[in-house]
């Protein structure tokens, strides 16, 4: 067992030392073992599958809003490595996602909960933040280290119970909190991006307060299930608001709330 662990140790050390990257906007140093080209390829493949399963919305109001907001947020992100695409998918769930490589999809159902362009910018900027932070690649990198650890355990013991305990403790103690920290970082980066795009970042508080601790978490379906919710999220956004407001004040083309929407469940 000792010999096998000694063989694994250099792999872990080299991977950790050589696989570091600085996250745009936040400046955090992250572990990154996957290549960006590989991630982009995965995103392209998944994007094609989504477009086969869900048809694009024909609602021109929604499409124009996403085109307008998406272009503004993309410009604020200034990440030209990706071929950005923004699409409204026809699905009643209030959901949104961004795949590696800058493929941003917003489900039509989320427009029932939006009051203006700035709130849509909050959603879009959060997803764009995931993309430029390469959170998907970062999670894959940590999963690789988790697998190396599992290999080390399995090579030294035949106990399935110990291996299962390792998987459970690393999932609950490392991977899940790590995933939530990615969501918090995406919130903060997104706040800066929407402000740089000229949208009033205070709209993010208005949007998330609609889904506060007094609302059922299922209000935003599966999208919210992996996100920090309730008062904790609002508190994090409020803490980040001074920096975001400074960015907003420095923005050349202030849009405030942008176009107002006439139909919304939030009214």
Q: How many β strands by DSSP?
A: 5
Q: What number is the mean pLDDT?
A: 79
In percent terms, what proportion of residues is strand? 5-15%
SSE arrangement, N to C:
HEEHHEEEHHHHHH
SSE diagram, text form:
Elements: H1 2-18, E1 20-22, E2 29-31, H2 36-53, H3 60-77, E3 85-89, E4 96-99, E5 103-107, H4 117-132, H5 135-156, H6 160-196, H7 202-209, H8 221-225, H9 230-250
Parallel strand pairs: 3-5
Antiparallel strand pairs: 1-2, 4-5
Helix pairs in contact: 1-5, 3-4, 4-6, 4-7, 5-6, 6-9, 7-9
What's the gist of this structure?
With 267 residues, this protein is mainly alpha-helical. Helices cover 61% and strands 7% of the residues. It has nine helices and five strands, in the order αββααβββαααααα.
Features:
267 residues, mainly alpha, 3-stranded mixed β-sheet, two-stranded antiparallel ribbon, 5 strands, 7% strand, disordered N terminus
Q: Can you describe what's shown?
A:
This protein is mainly alpha-helical. The protein is about 60% helix and about 5% strand. It is built from nine helices and five strands. It has helices spanning about 1-20, 35-55, 60-75, 115-130, 135-155, 160-195, 200-210, 220-225, 230-250; strands at about 20, 30, 85-90, 95-100, 105. The protein has a three-stranded mixed beta sheet. Helix 3 crosses helix 4 and helix 4 (about 115-130) packs across helix 6 (about 160-195). It is globular and about 45 Å long. The termini are far apart. Residues about 1-15, about 160-180 and about 220-225 have low confidence and may be disordered.
